[in-house]
Every structure is written in C-alpha cells, then in structure tokens.
Amino acid sequence: MILNRNDICWCGSGKKYKKCHLEFDEKLNRLKNQGHEVPTRDMIKNEKQIQGIRESAKINDGVLDLVQEKIRVGMSTEEIDKLVYDYTVSHGAIPADLNYGGYPKSVCVSINDVVCHGIPSEDTILEDGDIVNVDVSTIYNGYFSDASRMFMIGNVSEEHAKLVRVAKECLDKGFEAVKPWGFLGDIGAAIQEHAEANGFSVVRAFGGHGIGIKFHEDPFVAHVGKRGEGMVLVPGMVFTIEPMINEGDYEVFIDEDDDWTVYTEDGGYSAQWEYTVLVTETGAEILSR
Ligand code: MF3
Ligand code: CO
Asked: What cofactors does this protein use (predicted)?
C-alpha cells in the first residue's frame, strides 16, 4: 500500500503521513537498499501502545520490588510464586508466564546452575550462598512487560558475586549500546565483550525479544554479535535485553522431566538480568527493570 503525503500515517498516531513517518520510511528504505535488515511495521509501537506497555511495566517493577523486599534464606520458590501471583492479580493484571505454552507457574525462579525457566516448587528452598534469578512478566490491559533481577542469598562466594555483578554490567552495557538508527549487533557485541573479558561466557540458545502486544515478538535479540550488524534499531521499537552469563561454558540443556528448566551443561553457575527497553528519538529508555 502506497501512502500519499496527506494520508493518515500507518502507525496509528492519527497524524498525516508527511508529519509522521514519511521521512522515517524514506530513511529506512535507504538502509534496506544498502542491504541492512530493517524492522517491520508491527515492531514499531505508537504512543498509545507505548503508554499501555508503560503501565504494564509499572506493575511488573512493583512485583520485583516486592520480591526484593521479601526474598530470604529458607523461603521456598513456591512462596515467591504466590507473592507474584497475588500482587499481580490484586493490581488488575495477569502474570504472563502462567499457562504460557503450558508453563505451570506465575514466575521463573532460577537458582545457581539453572540458566532460566526454573519452575517454583514447595520443595525448592533458598539456601545460604545461592544466586537466584527472579524473572517476572506482566499482562495489563493486553500489554506485556518483562524484567528480571538477581538476588544473592546470605553469604555468596566472591566468584559467584562477581558473576552476578558482571551479568548486570553486561545488561547495562547492552542497554547503553541501544541507539536509534544503530543495530542489534551493537547490543550483542557490547555484552559479549564484557562477559568474555571477565572470563565468562554468553548463552546463545536464548535471547531477548520484541514485546508489547504479545509476550515474545520479533526481533530475536542475541546477546552476542558484531557492531553494525543485524537489524536496524528505530524509535518505537520495544524489546527485552536479558543476557544469561555463565561462569563456565555457554552450552545448556533442558530438563527432560519438566521440559522447562534450563541448566548449564557443565554445572557452572549462571546469572541473568533483564530490562524491557524502548528505543526513543534520542536514545533509549528502560520501561521495566
Ligand atoms: N520471562 C521469560 C523471558 O524473559 C519467559 C518465560 S516463559 C515461561 O522471556 F513460560 F517460562 F514462563
Ligand atoms: Co524476556
């Protein structure tokens, strides 16, 4: 469909095309013709959608703040699941994990050598020295948000504390690399460099993802890569950055019994932090953290 200058823009803003995404489309087309991968229109959120995601993200942050306040040695991961479910539902929202692809709980809690998708259980008790990722995702008014944090339980070894710290630095360096008219590869490169410079590895089998109208949208956000490569980043894109950093090798496997829990192949510990990020006209903004 060819839009004329005075037609209403495709983005849903209600503005005329010439006052909205005309120049944007011209720039994107030039990049495409130069051989770059460019986002499709469904990857570009309008103001109303961004507002919806912001409201979802606010609840998502509230859940993580509550978990941060309550998490302690001796607690079962089932108790964390209940905190997440109750807070989310009492704020008029839905835990996005619950029943997602058959997932049985409201949150993922991944301890030590569990890389991601740890299923809460009454039998899993947080112990002194554990490093724990709590990954929370929320649906509010149909809009999705997603973030995760690490928690150190009691006295954590220096090496594992370093893993947790470096994983956070990797996420922040990945976020700092997000620029309008930059590239997805800029993010992966920043993360991979920092992880490997610290003697750690970056999980390849899972990545970040577009988010907003659905839980997992395109693009796939790799946490390794090369600067200047991969999809062009443009204002209005919303996606997660969620590097999983391993102390040993990056290989992982999925538990054959539950079909969800992801472990490091070599039994080394793994740490992960996640933001939901918005690309803006001037840079980027963290929507959920
Ligand atoms: N929250 C995870 C992510 O960061 C996805 C969890 S899906 C679930 O993308 F089904 F395991 F909950
Ligand atoms: Co995610």
From this structure: Co(2+); Zn(2+); Mn(2+); Fe(2+)
